[in-house]
Amino acid sequence: MPLLSVGDLQKLRRWNSPSIANALEQITRSDPLAIVNAEETRDFMPEQGPMIGYAVTVVISGGDPQVIRKHPENFVRYREYLASIPGPKIVVVQDADRPRCHGAFWGEVGAANARALGCVGTITDGAVRDLDEMRALGFKALARRLAVSHAYCWPLRWDVQVEVFGTCIKPGQLIHADKHGFIVIPRDGQKRLLEATRFMDDNECNTVIAAGLRGAGNTVATNLAAMKKAGASFGVATRKKFKAGPGEF
Fold first, then answer.
1. Percent of the chain that is helix, strand, coil (3-state, to 5)
2. Residue 81 has pLDDT above 70, yes or no
3. Rounded Cα–Cα distance for residues 166 and 40 (Å)
4. Are the C-beta atoms of 119 and 138 separated by less than 8 Å?
5. What value does the mean pLDDT take over residues 166-195?
6. Pairing relationship of beta strands 162-164 and 89-95 according to DSSP bridges
7. What pTM, to 2 d.p., does this model score?
8. Does the pLDDT value for residue 218 go beyond 60?
9. Which pLDDT value is given to residue 1?
């Protein structure tokens, strides 16, 4: 059962993924190395801002024409799976042919269909095409690269654990993603995430960021002393709030 309302998810969309990561460092026991993309991603719709949703997963291949002949019903069954899961959803696609990515699983048609089924975007370690059309549909894509053709792209299996950009993702996991990459939001960090994100941003603005912005015209020694004091204040406020470590400063 989801821990966050649709309204809470919408509020979390107003923050970028680094802000989400800062908050999770304080409220979850999960290893930061295990919940973020280990390889570089590319956001092809950065102007759309962040997306957040629950993972629906699929493994695809674009280099074998026999798959379509052997499993002609797979696309219908894959779409039925997408339709069966409550939204908002992010379609997480493992391309079995990576890094070659023979063709694009995503284009105008796929994005339109997925959007109609409650999907807000995709994270695929394969390719995408029809960027202008996908943008017009409001379907966000983090992908490895672009491609001209869809080649023989076809779903192999779905509703399974996948690996994208070096990170394993299970169906149903909550994901926040933007131009910086993506982060899997652990279940033990969801209830307090909005509160923690707001607090950490306020704490930075009031201490370490303010120290930097006040630095013009000061001596180096004065600025270094102010930064040290601000870092200490940041840590005190963080420990008081979360009863945990001081955070990044």
1. 40, 25, 35
2. yes
3. 9
4. no
5. 96
6. unpaired
7. 0.90
8. yes
9. 61
CB atoms within 10 A of CB 49: 14
Nearest of 115, 137, 110, 116 to residue 45 by alpha carbon: 137
Pairing of the two strands 104-106 and 119-128 = parallel
Euclidean distance between CA atoms 104 and 42, whole angstroms = 15
Where b means 16+ CB within 10 Å and e means fewer, 160-169 reads eebebbebeb
50: left (phi over 0), alpha (psi -120 to 50) or beta: beta
Lowest mean pLDDT among 89-103, 147-161, 223-237: 223-237
Contacts of 108 (CB under 8 A, 6+ apart): 130, 133, 134, 137
Query: pLDDT tens, 18-42?
Result: 999 999 999 998 888 889 999 999 9
155 membership: H or E segment, kind and range: strand 154-158
Domain coordinates of the chain in residue numbers?
Answer: 6-189, 207-242
Taking 50 as the threshold, does the pLDDT of residue 249 lie above it? no
Question: 77-110 burial by CB neighbour count: b if 16+ within 10 A, else e?
Answer: ebbebbeebebbbbbbbbbebeeebbbbbbbbeb
- The CATH number for 6-189, chosen from 3.20.20.80, 1.10.287.3510, 3.40.980.10, 3.50.30.40, is 3.50.30.40
